[in-house]
Request: fold
Amino acid sequence: MTTTHRRRVSRPLSAALALSVAAVIAAGCGSSGSSNGGGTTQGSGTAGQSVPTANLPVLKKIGKGEGQLNLIAWAGYLQPGWVRPFEQQTGCMIHATYPNTSDEFVTLMKNGGGGQWDMASSSGDADLRIIYAGDAHPVNINLIPSWKQFFPAFKSPPFNTVNGVHYGVSLQWGPNVLMYSKKVFKTPPTSWSVIYSKKYAGKISVYDGPIYIADAALYLKAHDPSLGITDPYELTQRQFQATVNLLKAQHPLVKQYWSSAPAQISAFANGDVTVGTSWPYQVSTLTAQHFPIGAVIPKEGATGWADTWMLAARAPHPNCAYMWLRYISTPKVQAEQAVSYGETPDNMLACGYMNQIAKGSCDQYHANAPTAYFKSIALWKTPVATCDNGKPDCVPYVNWVAAWNTQIK
Amino acid sequence: MGVTTSAGAATAAPARPAPDGPWSRISAVLWRRPWARATLLLTPPLAWFVLIYIASLAVLLITAFWTINPFTTNIMRTWNVSNFTTILGTAAYRTIILRTVGMAAGVTVVDAIIAVPFAYYMARIARPRTRTVLFVCVLLPLWASYLAKVFAWLLIFTHDGVLNWALGKMGIGPLNLIYSNTAVFIVFCYIWLPYMVIPVYAALERIPASQIEASQDLGGRTLRTVRSVILPLALPGIVAGSIFTFSLTLGDYITPILIGGGNSTLIGNVIDSNVVYNLPLAAAMATVPIAIMACYLLAARALGASREI
Reply:
């Protein structure tokens, strides 16, 4: 028994061994050029690319709901407060998954949502990747009446609308804030410098993702003018290396690289960290737990996101998806989500409803959108090799990922 | 159902012509041809093993030789070995591989040092009732969810946690263990300990008392008996347990995230962070622990561990 058992197990084992040894040997002998972190480093702008799904027919009229709706959403975007009424009104029961990074959104939307997912509330840095990969479906914007009430900047923004074709409907936008424990900071910090300062070594919590490099670039934009950074997502090799060096120096000071919101909430609540980059969701959750937490947008400005409900190319429940798009765009629901999460709605009429929910919240979250505030937020976008001036001098996102995984962390 | 009963009937009366009915005829055919019986029995598990397990490993290995479009991250099926040259050529990845192997080896050694005396006590000294209690103590944590155990350690290690509270009561300053490699190491040692205790116990229990007595009769003192009789006979059990502790540590990525706070990067974390962005690189990285484990298993087999698992 023992021998036969062993023989049967060991044969696939040695096969696996042979394969993997062969793989490693092949790798060792390989001479093809490589880049840190894998992948090729060729130019990867959108110029010359076309959207594979651009000519798919859009829905003409919203039909009967399918009873189900499968959503990919940021944590905090599907609270019972506005999901329950939708389910009751439409009969579309919502099932959701909550990724932690934009890259995970892109992966989940692969193969048009895989025939499983209907929509994703992805951010500007993921949207174009989803669109050009052929994973988003054109949206008939005429079926979304509230869209007409959107701020002009979010009606057809370049991150979800290509050549006049909409692939989703803008949702909300907001900043990545500097969050701090009021137990340690008696007065709010005014600069991002606190998270690069030895004074708070071992008490700092920052976002675990390559896009966080832009936060450091934004800091250097203000503090090292000789680098000449204008856009934190468009960095030349010299600017990029300076930013990476700043983050390398920050590494020994960092206590936690958080990759999920609950992990950061527990680290703050337990006193393991006292300051760091965060989302308004963590601020409102900790506030609800009566933890003395504060958050500011420091004087250097902040990075931020502009989210869109993107329609998957192979969405299995299109009618329910359109019902959701209609519902989530209305001023009242926009206001509910904005106040609950702590972000800025795209619907101009949400302001009044926000003040009904929480007095002064319209001003607090800039829902009347003064242009100065909009300009102080550098919205997430995918870094591409082609800079805005058309020159191929910028460092593409693949190198951001490589630097993040092999140099900074 | 029908097969069993009629097979029984066929066994009872092999000389008689098979009774009528399709089931009886099938069972008669199977009884006469043992190879057909074996094929029928083995096909479903083998098919599962080959299709689900080996095939998915093969697909993984094939993916490792592809690349991605850096913008859309779609997989491009062009054959090359750049993922492997990247892994072997990048200092950070080499450090991570060494750190992971070191962590796995360290956890294995510490678990073995704890498990051998414990298992010896359980197998040869404890009375039956104590032994049952100890067995429950070893096995009970296995009933709890992995995540529950990791979160329990999070609550122990955090700044305002149980450990610092207890140390504070004793007047010793707070320890800053959470989100460090040390914390990850301790949690690994705890979580995988039962997988070491059980095979070592099985090996120790099987040592005949006569051999230990013979050693003593021949003048062997305690240390000599342990060194020359008990340890050599327990070694296959230790090696079998080490396969578990080593491979489980090698592949884990959740403890480094939750207890290591993203500071303690192991092979599993590189795979995890690349699965969403660069699947081919993740696949290439996944071959590293496979290769390490394959070497480890071959070495373990030479030491006779396969009798214990």
Q: What stands out?
A: Residues 2-29 of chain A form the longest helix (28 residues). Confidence is low (pLDDT under 50) at residues 1-44 of chain A. The radius of gyration of chain A is 23 Å. Chain A touches chain B through 67 residues (CB under 8 Å).
